[in-house]
Amino acid sequence: STPPGLFSDTMAAEAARIAFAALGVDAQAAVREQQRNRKLERHARRQAVRTSSSTSAAAPGPAGAPAPASTPLLEGCEYPDRLSRSDYFGAVPYGMYHRPDLRATPEHVTNLLSLAARDPGVGAHSYFLFGLGTSSAWNPAFNARLLWEGFFTITANLGVGGEPQPLPELQPFYSVLHWSYFERSPAVRKSLRRLVAQAASPDTGAGVSLEGEGGGAACGAAAGVRDGGYRLVVSKDVEASWRQLDRYQGDRHSTNWMTLRYLRMLQAASADESVNLRLHAIELRRRGRGQSEQVGRVAERRSSTAADADVYDEDDSQGQASGEKEDGGGGAGCEEVLAGEIGFSIGRVYTSLTGWTSKRSRERLGAAQLALLGRWLQGRGYAFWSMGHCYSPTMEYKRAL
Predict the structure, then answer these.
(1) Residue 209 Cα to chain centre, angstroms
(2) What does DSSP assign to residue 311?
(3) Distance from C-alpha of 234 to C-alpha of 316, rounded to nearest angstrom
């Protein structure tokens, strides 16, 4: 029943067998040994987590104390809460998977996932090239489908098209943050205490607020004028946020995988009401002198519930602050953009894609933005926060949340 030319399980499985058969005897034995070792390692990790879970349940810690590092995120979870880089990449040792007949269509995605679940040879790859070099690889609805299935797509120079191409990654593990752990995180509490202390200092004098889409009054509004303060804003000007990101990534890494074409592809998917994806540009801003203070502050309280954050959804017809500059400099009476990220939501799950800070400082602006974003996501009713790669020590800041 497979239409002519449609990528099928049978075709791919046969290709995998041929590729394996082409290896020498020693190479085949090495592949089998790698697969056997990975299976044993996965079994050992699951057993360690189950043992840790039963030990923790038998001897619970003090009420309100953070969970020990060895416990899983959720009861019955098979996965540990810490992975090394070798654990992560050892689970997918074969890298890139490409077939000329693997097209950028939902049917090919379904068949590929079905095959990867059954065939260890295919499932041991991490990158899958759909429609390489074709315009269909940039189709907004198709890429939204990949994200819905769990692919984390970046771009890379793949030698075709004269520009970076979409590179979908099917991760062996995902960094997933649940709110009960977020609220008990010492790093989050420290970030919020620091923000509140800075906002209440004589130099700033204002509070900390969280705004909804396009929330906030224009610079220099007449009411409630006072100095300083922080706002977390979901900006309507996504491309202005992207320019900040592009500048940061260019300065730090000499490249930015989130190209303008990639951003506009996600913008098109987000604007399509038939597509289950919404793009978000998150910005941490600081109000300058004369800035209108917004109602609502994040005050640290003893309870650790979502009620700690007052969340506002205000549709500001004036858009971004009228005096705000692209470089985030922000003159007198205007807002300075300090840090931010671009991410997307599918249903009640929010996923971070990539982020930036305008400058390095002892204020730890990136950590502050993450702490406030977690509070905002909770207040909006998101089920959890997906944060992409999760190996330590490179991604230890995610574990700290």
Answers:
(1) 22
(2) E
(3) 11
Task: Please tell me whether residue 249 adopts helix, strand or coil conformation.
Answer: helix
SS3 of residue 38 by DSSP: helix
Alpha-helical segments (H) within 133-185: 140-149, 179-183
Q: Which pTM value belongs to this model?
A: 0.70
Cβ atoms of 111 and 7 within 8 Å: the answer is: yes
Cis peptide before 393 (omega within 30 of 0): yes
Let me know: does 243 contact 219? Beta carbons within 8 Å.
Answer: no
CA distance 324 to 329: 8
Write the CA distances from 371 to 15, 191, 334, 378, integer angstroms.
Answer: 47, 7, 24, 11
CA distance 272 to 223: 38
Letter string b/e over residues 312-321, b meaning 16 or more CB atoms within 10 A of that residue's CB: beeebeeebb
Structure tokens at 358: 């305008």
Cα(397)–Cα(401) distance, integer angstroms: 7
pLDDT digits (tens, 9 = 90+) for 334-392: 788 999 999 999 999 999 999 999 877 667 888 889 999 999 999 999 999 999 888 88
Which of 215, 210, 209 lies closest to 315, judged by CA? Answer: 215
Is the model's pLDDT at 26 over the cut of 70?
Answer: no
DSSP H helical segments within 76-206, as ranges?
A: 85-90, 106-118, 120-123, 140-149, 179-183, 186-199
Contact indicator for 353, 341 with CB cutoff of 8 Å: yes
For 343, list phi and psi in degrees, rounded to 5.
-150, -175
Torsions phi, psi for 183 (to 5 deg): -70, -25
